């Protein structure tokens, strides 16, 4: 049986928040169709990697909730592009230093779209400190945004999926946490950032057990993907080649891994390293300090 992605029967059923059952559940066509009614919250999605992932997920049929903190104009542009791809998107502002704002985010998304099926934790603070300059203020700032917020959002998604499960036996959710290859290749730069991502990686394993069987939790760890204000274009190109494969990750590579993690129903409690093998090499300093 063929299952055209935009067949009226499929779309009308999906528009009502149901999953089309006329296709075999694991066929690619069914996957595309099923994504049509589903909603994903991508944090930090106004710019850079978050934006790339938002657009890739919209292109695959997901309704995208675009979270941002200060990049309001960029968030509006990302929403417009997502709407052009999947038909429904909206932006939501929240500062992840503020626990109440984090706790309110998933209910706001659910009120807007009627459902939430997936969460991509990409928003991140990345500020330099070292063993010499380390202090509680920097540690707390990184832990709030990079660890506490992703865990609270996963908790809220789980509660939402459990509530839905009362009426829908098939209700399932998935969380993708953006990590970093440097967890497998540590250097002493960005100590608070690295600690916060190491804690998120550990939290991912704990949550994979705690939120099963309704919600899966998967890590995606990019290598050097986008440049920073600390690097010239020439230096970035040179560092990007520093990997066993001769190229680190691109935004498209990372987005493809996130999409795979969202769609593959047997992956949980593990991390996909998407870095050209950079984690297998030894770097004495962070890329941005090289
Ligand atoms: N870029 C890379 O090469 C690379 C490499 C390895 C891992 N990663 C990981 O991949 C993810 C995305 O990377 P990226 O370079 O795109 O990230 P990024 O530019 O450093 O940050 C993404 C977004 O996080 C948001 N954010 C920062 N502080 C926040 C707060 N207190 N509350 C809410 N949002 C906040 C910002 O939103 P606003 O702009 O709206 O303020 C920012 O645009 C991160 O988790 C990062 O650790 C990236």
TrEMBL record:
Keywords on record: Oxidoreductase
A Pfam family per the record: adh_short_C2
InterPro entries: NAD(P)-bd_dom_sf, SDR_fam
SUPFAM superfamilies registered for this protein in UniProt: NAD(P)-binding Rossmann-fold domains (SSF51735)
Phosphoprotein recorded as keyword: no
Record GO terms (molecular function): oxidoreductase activity
Keyword Oxidoreductase: yes
PANTHER family: OXIDOREDUCTASE, SHORT-CHAIN DEHYDROGENASE/REDUCTASE FAMILY (AFU_ORTHOLOGUE AFUA_5G02870) (PTHR43639), SHORT-CHAIN DEHYDROGENASE_REDUCTASE FAMILY PROTEIN (PTHR43639:SF1)
Family (UniProt): Belongs to the short-chain dehydrogenases/reductases (SDR) family.
NCBIfam families named in the record: PRK09134.1
Identification of the protein by name: Short-chain dehydrogenase/reductase SDR
Species for this entry: Verminephrobacter eiseniae (strain EF01-2)
């Amino acid at each position: 049986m063929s299952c055209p992605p935009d067949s009226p029967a499929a779309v009308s059923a999906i528009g009502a928040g149901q999953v089309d059952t006329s296709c075999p559940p694991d066929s690619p066509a069914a996957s595309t169709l099923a994504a049509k009614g589903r909603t994903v919250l991508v944090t930090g999605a106004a710019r850079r990697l978050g934006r790339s992932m938002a657009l890739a997920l919209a292109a695959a049929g997901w309704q995208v909730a675009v979270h941002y903190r200060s990049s309001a104009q960029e968030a509006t542009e990302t929403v417009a592009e997502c709407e052009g791809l999947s038909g429904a998107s909206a932006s939501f502002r929240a500062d992840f230093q503020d626990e109440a704002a984090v706790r309110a985010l998933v209910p706001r998304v659910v009120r807007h779209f009627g459902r939430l099926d997936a969460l991509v934790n990409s928003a991140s603070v990345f500020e330099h400190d070292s063993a010499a300059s380390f202090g509680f203020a920097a540690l707390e700032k990184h832990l709030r945004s990079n660890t506490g917020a992703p865990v609270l959002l996963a908790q809220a998604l789980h509660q939402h999926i459990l509530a839905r499960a009362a009426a829908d036996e098939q209700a399932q959710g998935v969380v993708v946490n953006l990590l970093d290859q440097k967890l497998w290749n540590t250097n002493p730069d960005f100590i608070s950032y690295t600690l916060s991502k190491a804690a998120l990686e550990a939290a991912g394993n704990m949550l994979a057990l705690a939120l099963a069987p309704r919600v899966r939790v998967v890590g995606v760890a990019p290598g050097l993907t986008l440049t920073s204000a600390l690097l010239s274009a020439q230096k970035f190109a040179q560092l990007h080649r520093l990997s066993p494969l001769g190229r680190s990750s691109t935004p498209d590579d990372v987005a493809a891994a996130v999409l795979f993690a969202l769609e593959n129903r047997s992956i949980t409690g593990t991390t996909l390293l998407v870095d050209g093998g950079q984690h297998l090499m030894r770097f004495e300093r962070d890329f941005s300090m090289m």
